[in-house]
Amino acid sequence: MPRYVPKAPLSDHERLAYDERVFGQVNRLLHLAQGQHDRVLALSMASFAEECLGRLLQTFMRDVKAADELIEGFNAPIGTFAARIKLCHALGLITDAQFSDLELVRKIRNEFAHTWDECSFEDQRIKAWVGAINLSPMSGSQDPTVEDKFREAIAGMLIELELIQERIANGYGRLKVIAFHVTPNKPGIPE
Known about the structure:
- The structure is a single chain.
- By secondary structure, the chain is mainly alpha-helical.
- The chain has a single domain (about 10-170), classed as Nucleotidyltransferases  domain 2 (Four Helix Bundle (Hemerythrin (Met), subunit A), Up-down Bundle), CATH 1.20.120.
- It has seven helices and no strands.
- α5 (about 95-115) packs antiparallel against α6 (about 125-130).
- The termini are far apart.
- The relative contact order is 0.14.
């Protein structure tokens, strides 16, 4: 499992706790996704990515009720996978390549989610979309199947997203108030 190494050295116990906190959910997802039908794999990975983007946005935005309401709940403006992908990209939370890959994951998810009929990674459209996804540098496969490429590419991206969220949570870049009120200068009061 890839590891983000914080500046201060960690003991073995601290590293295990760190890895579990940051990567525990991704590891659980990958365990659950092993051997699953194509549809279950696509829907599970995309659902996790959507949730991960929501957590990333919540971590980045100010800690106010309005931020939560934008992301969660009925008619939340940033409640969809598409909206979260676009906002994360617009805010610079994901790279152009991650944006492109997440858009492909969203298309693949929709292909599986919006048909009752048989659907697989071997379908030409899905195969082409998976082929366009960037394979993670963390991938270990030499000649992965379409399903393996999807799983490995998305797993690598999810790890990256979890690391970004971790950095923000540790003070790397949560949004701060930059707004101000314009008030007239009163005589005798220094600026």
